[in-house]
């Protein structure tokens, strides 16, 4: 048993993946010296020739990974910040996500693109973004967004082993903030399954990343007030675990969907829509979303950043209202 | 009667070509087959039997000369939508070409999921591509990187038009490939137009090959209407890349003798005189004239090829027309690989 | 009064915009000779020097437009097919949509990016796409998607006059298919307002683009069966006309959201979520979405394309079920 | 006592510089102010008073020499995050620089909405930018296009680092600008690193200026540690662009004397000896030595400048610290312009 941070879990999984399969390699900006968050630190010495510093050009990082995966390698690409992935969007939309479909499964792309996302780190407009809304609309791609170190480790391993392209989202605020005891063996977590992290009969909260931790903290304090929440850690955002989402919604009849991203067009709309269609008869209250306000990007100055980010207090307030409905 | 007896003057000439007699025959037959297929495809489109056609008429020499420089079954071809003739070199049959045009269920390039001319067959090492131009240059670099890391002595040849060299992905691909000295040939078919835009609107340089200078990359510009010259330029570049000499940018100067696609009316922007001038340089006519002058083949043999090709195209259309269409629900499936 | 197709309405509005304001100009691939759909045909002769054929590079088309708009011009960019806009995504996300926000309104970008979207034209995977889901998640940008010629004309004019960046979506299947009598003066349509195109008490259908026409056709045939539909033409997708959406949902208690794009993560989720939260107490049935299946892109072969596309029959079937709920 | 009387030997020398005495003084003072501000900003970061700092230490000569070639109030500057010194040339005060660092409500560059060093003030023609590298090169081309269409005789100067020249947007911007012969200077500050990556990982060429050859664009590579040489290179390019001579790619060879940013530990990847070598070429020391040798200013005058700058920085910190922070709800608003 060892206590690991999210960052250590990621680094551990990368080392394990490089160890387990000679076809794996890592590419990205500054990865040879460990990367700006030090997720790849120490790996170059252990795995000579299998870390590749790329030029500063994100479309090439993803495009080259596609080619290498088609050849039969298992590239693990790092995009330094999720905010810089947009110039590679075309390679995701037009190429990676369609590869298996258009070859009718003859070729698939066993590649992972890891990237740190999310705010609360004084990263301002271009180092704080949530990008899941764009990528969860790409059938053919998988999108994974864990919250706890053990899941980071096991889902990153599973992502590398997956024959399909996976976008692996690492919430940068949690890198050093969240710790957990981890078994020697990777926990059994499977891409495509969410987890009910806490059970309570009054309402269900759906979240991922930093917001999952904020939701758990809110649930804890609400429990002291007598409001019992179910909390679902979504873990995989595409393909979604619709079954768990609907089951918990039906059980509690009230739902609160939380994300750090802005509201309109955010990923929460999909969950709300699923519930409003398929759990409609069980609903006892409006389907509630809590998200950042509709402004173009997270501001840098502390007060504005805090205003932007949902947190345990805002979640508790929303949950309290919902419970009282 | 051996070939030598039959054509006493041709042997030395053929040696100069760096191509065997058999290769020259293949070259001619493939160019001709591509041409006849394209003509027939356009006709099928005009008859309402194929909603869309895009072809490579005028670029047959550029394509066949280059593709024949590769090792089939080993080297990778990452083509673009005009590369029918390259695909023929890599093993595509006329029947298959028609399956693809007609988007039939058994089209091996995706079974009707993509527009025609979006080829890709894994077993042949022809790599699937979309319509968005220049994305494939990065895939080619990635394949070349993987091969280099695997000490696999292959070469990747990827194609695009000159207009597509304006895209960011072109730059990122060449930059990456040269930094890592990858075995990849960036093969640009400069056919003078990007739809309606002539080259001076697309680039501020006289030759696409000049773009290599930004990357310190080997480059060449070749007369793309001359299949033999193309082969003589591309083959050494491929050999050099295979030996670890790094990437190459090659421009084949050719001409789009047809409209951009079946949806385009090129009379709106193309001067008639220009088209006529280039028609004089038709790569197939040129090739035939040259091998006839050099007496490589007797005229009868060339005529035989012509007949064979005509029959093949006719058979392909008839056969493919009767193949099953995809079922509606075939649209589902293969979204993920299990 | 003149009868115009959608395409004629677009061309007319472009001519009017160039006429009205010397700061306007048009840039894009092949626009000087009229563009592949001939939307700019004849304009070069009328407005010499104000149409610019660009190199084949979408990021530059949008990025250059941003600079020109900042300077004070009013660029109208054409992206030849919506499917080719993805490599310009970064310029939308990181730059255009944030310009006013980050300068606190000191500078804004009066620019329009027009692009043909949608399927049903045997365009296959890369000439048929719906892209609204990505762009409706960009506060700071406006997204307009009309259905009728008169609205194309007036909303395109309004988009050019708007001080903010506007993505103007033109459904290519409707270009020559849909005709309408248009007054000499542009109709009064305002960015940010939807329109109730038809009123009926049984349920409300929300749609835009080609699907609006299919929805109207379905509503017509349902009426013969005694099912009366309200049909809302959304017109502007961002910012959304929430008021009209909620009002109609509350009135009919049953809603059907239709789009041509694939279901999961599609724009319909946002509308469903809004209704499930803010019209919850009025709902008499599950919030229903009808969309294309979750596959990476529209297939080319006719049978598969038809299978993919929602149409009047599929809409009528869904509406019938809903009415019977 | 006139300047001539005071420094009899300097006049001819100054003429060689192509800069007036006043300009030379400005050059020195601005470089020094940028340096002292950057030093103080890093200190404030280390004291926990500013969450983030990114600076231009080592690039002051490259920046001041270039910015002084422009017409302030007329020409456009489209900077990148290291260009503090350029902004000072364009009218930014020390106080304003600190407002920006501390993300204060009245920071004119967005009032705390962006990270520090993301400048933009419309009235000064300094154009707002994000963190994503190279996007701004296209904005610069767009401004230049608009100016050319408006017959407005301005020049646009835009900056990035050498690492950023690998991005697709760099290629698309240069291609576009040269096709349309736009009045824009692409000014690349080659400081040897892109975070931890040294130049050979970023580009397969010795000089960024070589990239111009792909576009048939004018180019120059200049010693970016020498402010006077920079001015003498950039000024004629700006003049030529203003006269309609088209764009220019200029590389200033300099060095990043500090870490990438306050989040970076450059000891992990940078050889100590290399840093020491470049420290010898510190642009401010070099400048001072040169003007002293040439007796342009008496030493006392340089010392006076030093004192003035120190006081200015001290005042700026004290003043800015006491300015109001943005309120939480300031996060809303200005999403759209009405
Ligand atoms: C990114 C992108 N933008 C636009 C298009 C539409 N389009 C298809 S082919 C073409 C012209 C390509 O010209 P060129 O690269 O010279 O190739 P050619 O067709 O002449 O062989 C254009 C603009 C596209 N396919 N991809
Ligand atoms: C598109 C993009 N990818 C990654 C980053 C993260 N990043 C910030 S600065 C930088 C290095 C830039 O190097 P260079 O262009 O040489 O400029 P320098 O910082 O050396 O002045 C990187 C990788 C970014 N800002 N934008
Ligand atoms: Mg071309
Ligand atoms: Mg640098």
Q: What's the CATH C level of chain B? A: Alpha Beta
E-strand count of chain B: 7
Shape of chain B: globular
Strand order of the largest sheet of chain A: 3-2-4-5-7-6-12
Q: What is CATH's topology name of the largest domain in chain A?
A: Rossmann fold
Class inferred from helices and paired strands of chain B = alpha/beta
Gyration radius of chain A, to the nearest Å? 19 Å
Radius of gyration of chain B: 20 Å
Main sheet specs of chain A: 7 strands, mixed
What gross morphology of chain A would you assign?
A: globular
Task: Determine the fraction of residues in helical runs of chain B and give it as a percent range.
Answer: 40-55%
**What number of structural domains do the residues of chain B give?**
1
Description:
The complex is a heterotetramer, with two copies of chain A (325 residues) and two copies of chain B (338 residues). With 325 residues, chain A is α/β, with parallel strands linked by helices. Chain A folds into two domains: 3-181, 3-Layer(aba) Sandwich (Rossmann fold); 195-323, Rossmann fold (3-Layer(aba) Sandwich), CATH 3.40.50. Chain A has twelve helices and 14 strands. Chain A has a seven-stranded mixed β-sheet, with helices on both faces. A five-stranded mixed β-sheet of chain A has the order 9-11-10-13-14, sandwiched between helices. A two-stranded antiparallel sheet of chain A has the order 1-8. In chain A, helix 3 (58-71) runs parallel beside helix 4 and helix 9 crosses helix 10. Chain B is α/β, with parallel strands linked by helices and 338 residues long. Chain B has a single domain, classed as 3-Layer(aba) Sandwich (Rossmann fold), CATH 3.40.50. Chain B has helices spanning 3-6, 10-17, 21-46, 60-67, 84-89, 94-101, 135-149, 168-179, 199-202, 227-242, 272-279, 283-293, 299-321, and strands at residues 76-78, 156-161, 184-190, 193-194, 197-198, 218-223, 248-253. In chain B, helix 3 (21-46) packs across helix 13 and helix 4 packs parallel to helix 10 (227-242). Chains in contact: A-B, A-C, A-D, B-C, B-D, C-D. Chains A and C meet through helix 4 and helix 10 of A and helix 4 and helix 10 of C. The complex binds thiamine diphosphate (2 copies) and magnesium ion (2 copies). One thiamine diphosphate sits between chains B (82, 131-133, 160-164, 189, 191, 193-195, 256, 260) and C (29, 56, 58, 80, 84).
């Amino acid at each position: 048993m060892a206590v690991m941070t999210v960052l250590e879990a990621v680094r551990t999984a990368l080392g394990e993946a490089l160890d387990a399969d000679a076809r794996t390699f890592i590419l990205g900006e500054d990865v040879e010296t460990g990367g700006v968050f030090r997720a790849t630190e120490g790996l170059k010495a252990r795995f000579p020739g299998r870390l590749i510093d790329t030029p500063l050009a994100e479309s090439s990082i993803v495009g080259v990974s596609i080619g290498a995966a088609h050849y039969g390698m298992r590239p693990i690409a790092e995009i330094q910040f999720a905010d810089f992935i947009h110039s590679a969007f075309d390679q995701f939309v037009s190429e990676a996500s369609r590869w298996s479909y258009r070859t009718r499964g003859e070729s698939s792309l066993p590649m992972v693109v890891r990237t740190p996302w999310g705010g609360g780190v004084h990263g301002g407009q271009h180092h704080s973004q949530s990008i899941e809304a764009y990528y969860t609309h790409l059938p053919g791609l998988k999108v994974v967004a864990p919250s706890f170190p053990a899941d980071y480790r096991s889902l990153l391993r599973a992502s590398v082993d997956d024959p399909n392209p996976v976008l692996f989202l690492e919430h940068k605020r949690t890198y050093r903030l969240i710790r957990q005891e981890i078994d020697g063996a990777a926990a059994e977590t499977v891409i495509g399954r969410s987890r009910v992290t806490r059970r309570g009969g009054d309402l269900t909260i759906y979240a991922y990343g930093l917001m999952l931790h904020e939701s758990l903290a809110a649930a804890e304090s609400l429990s002291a007030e007598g409001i019992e929440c179910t909390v679902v850690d979504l873990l995989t955002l595409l393909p979604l675990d619709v079954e768990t989402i609907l089951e918990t919604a039906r059980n509690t009849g009230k739902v609160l969907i939380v994300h750090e991203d802005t509201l309109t067009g955010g990923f929460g709309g999909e969950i709300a829509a699923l519930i409003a269609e398929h759990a409609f008869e069980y609903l006892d209250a409006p389907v509630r979303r809590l998200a950042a306000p509709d402004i173009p990007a997270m501001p840098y100055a502390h007060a504005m950043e805090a205003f932007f980010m949902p947190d345990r207090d805002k979640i508790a307030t929303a949950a309290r209202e919902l419970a009282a409905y | 009667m051996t070939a030598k007896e039959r054509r006493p003057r041709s042997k030395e000439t053929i040696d100069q070509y760096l191509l065997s007699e058999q290769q020259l025959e293949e070259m001619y037959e493939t160019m001709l087959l591509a041409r006849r297929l394209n003509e027939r495809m356009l006709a099928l489109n005009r008859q309402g039997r194929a909603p869309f056609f895009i072809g490579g008429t005028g670029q047959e020499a550029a394509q066949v000369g280059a593709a024949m420089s590769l090792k089939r079954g080993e080297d990778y071809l990452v083509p673009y939508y005009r590369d029918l003739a390259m695909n023929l070199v890599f093993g595509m049959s006329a029947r298959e070409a028609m399956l693809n045009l007609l988007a039939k269920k058994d089209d091996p390039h995706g079974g009707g999921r993509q527009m025609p001319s979006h080829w890709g067959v894994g077993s042949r090492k022809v790599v699937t591509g979309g319509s968005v131009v220049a994305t494939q240059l990065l895939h080619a670099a990635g394949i070349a990187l993987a091969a280099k890391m695997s000490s696999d002595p292959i070469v990747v040849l990827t194609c695009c038009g000159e207009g597509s060299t304006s895209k960011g992905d072109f730059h990122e691909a060449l930059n990456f490939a040269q930094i890592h000295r990858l075995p990849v040939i960036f093969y640009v078919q400069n056919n003078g137009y990007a739809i309606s835009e002539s080259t001076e609107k697309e680039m501020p340089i006289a030759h696409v090959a000049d773009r290599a200078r930004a990357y310190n990359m080997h480059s060449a510009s070749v007369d793309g209407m001359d299949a033999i010259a193309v082969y003589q330029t591309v083959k050494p570049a491929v050999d050099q890349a295979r030996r670890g000499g790094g990437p190459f940018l090659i421009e084949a100067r050719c001409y789009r003798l047809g409209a951009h696609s079946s949806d385009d009316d090129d009379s709106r922007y193309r001067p008639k005189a220009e088209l006529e001038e280039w028609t004089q340089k038709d790569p197939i006519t040129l090739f035939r004239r040259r091998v006839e002058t050099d007496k490589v083949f007797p005229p009868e043999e060339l005529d035989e090829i012509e007949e064979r090709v005509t029959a093949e195209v006719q058979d392909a259309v008839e056969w493919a027309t009767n193949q099953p269409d995809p079922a509606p629900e075939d649209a589902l499936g293969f979204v993920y690989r299990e």
